Structure to design on (266 residues):
C-alpha cells in the first residue's frame, strides 16, 4: 500500500488532510459546545460564493472563499447580537441567500464544471502545491490562535454572558471564533468539499462526546477520530476510486455509530 505515496498529488493530499483533520474538530468543538453546529454548514455555503467568484475571475478560489466566509461570519455575529433575529434564523438567512447568489454566479460562468465539482465534494487530484502552502499557513494561524486563546474561547463557548461578567471581552472572542471557523471551512473544502466540510467539524466532536471525558480530553479524542477518518478516507478514495470528501465523512459516521453502540451496551 506504500505505492500511494509515489504520487505527488497523494503526498500533498495527506499533508493537507493532516492539517485539516487537526483544525476542523478543534474549532468544531467550540461551535458544538456553543450550540452553533450549523455555523459550519452556513459558512461552507457562503464559501461557495467565494469559490464561484474565484472561478469567474480566474483567481485563487480558496482566497476568495476565505474572504467571503470571514465577511459572512462577522455579519452573522453582528446580526445575532441585535436580538432582532434568532440565531437559527440568521444562519438560515445566510445559508439560503449565499446558495442563491452562488447559483446565479455559476450560471453566469457557464454552469458547473469539473473544477467546481472538486470544490463541492473534494478531490485529492486537484490539490496544487500552492494550495498546500496556503492550507499550512492558514492552519498554523488557527492552531496558534486556539493554543494562545484557549481559555477565552472555552469561557465564551460555555457561557458568553458569564465570560463577559468575568472581564473577558466576550464579543471580541466570539467574533474571532467564528472568523477562525470561516478560515477552517475555506481551508478544508479542498479535501472534504464545501457540502461536507461541516460534517468533519462536527461528527468527530460528537463522537468524542460519547466517552464522557473532560473538555480537553474530548477535544483530543475528536482530533484522533478526525485524523483516523481523513487517513482511511484518503486511502480508500485512492484505491477504490471514490470521491475523497464523501468517503471521509462516511468513515466519520461509521466511527460515530460504533461509539454510540458501544455506549448503549455499557
Amino acid at each position: 500500500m506504500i505505492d500511494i505515496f509515489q504520487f505527488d498529488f497523494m503526498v500533498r493530499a495527506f499533508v493537507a488532510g493532516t492539517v485539516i483533520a487537526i483544525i476542523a474538530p478543534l474549532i468544531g468543538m467550540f461551535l458544538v459546545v456553543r450550540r452553533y453546529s450549523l455555523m459550519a454548514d452556513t459558512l461552507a455555503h457562503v464559501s461557495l460564493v467565494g469559490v464561484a467568484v474565484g472561478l469567474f475571475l480566474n483567481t485563487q478560489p480558496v482566497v476568495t472563499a476565505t474572504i467571503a466566509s470571514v465577511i459572512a461570519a462577522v455579519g452573522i455575529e453582528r446580526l445575532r447580537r441585535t436580538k432582532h433575529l434568532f440565531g437559527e434564523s440568521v444562519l438560515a438567512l445566510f445559508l439560503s441567500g449565499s446558495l442563491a447568489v452562488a447559483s446565479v454566479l455559476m450560471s453566469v460562468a457557464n454552469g458547473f464544471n469539473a473544477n467546481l465539482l472538486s470544490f463541492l465534494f473534494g478531490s485529492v487530484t486537484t490539490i496544487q502545491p500552492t494550495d498546500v502552502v496556503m492550507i499550512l499557513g492558514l492552519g498554523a494561524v488557527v492552531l496558534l490562535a486556539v493554543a494562545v486563546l484557549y481559555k477565552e474561547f472555552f469561557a465564551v463557548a460555555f457561557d458568553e454572558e458569564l465570560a463577559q461578567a468575568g472581564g473577558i471581552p466576550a464579543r471580541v472572542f466570539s467574533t474571532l471564533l467564528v472568523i477562525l471557523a470561516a478560515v477552517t471551512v475555506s481551508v478544508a473544502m479542498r479535501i472534504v468539499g464545501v457540502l461536507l466540510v461541516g460534517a468533519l467539524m462536527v461528527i468527530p466532536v460528537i463522537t468524542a462526546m460519547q466517552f464522557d471525558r473532560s473538555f480537553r480530553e474530548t477535544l483530543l479524542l475528536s482530533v484522533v477520530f478526525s485524523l483516523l477518518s481523513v487517513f482511511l478516507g484518503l486511502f480508500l478514495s485512492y484505491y477504490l476510486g471514490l470521491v475523497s470528501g464523501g468517503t471521509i465523512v462516511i468513515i466519520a459516521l461509521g466511527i460515530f455509530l460504533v461509539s454510540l453502540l458501544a455506549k448503549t451496551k455499557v
Notes: The chain has one domain: 2-265. The radius of gyration is 18 Å. The CA atoms of residues 233 and 247 lie 5 Å apart.
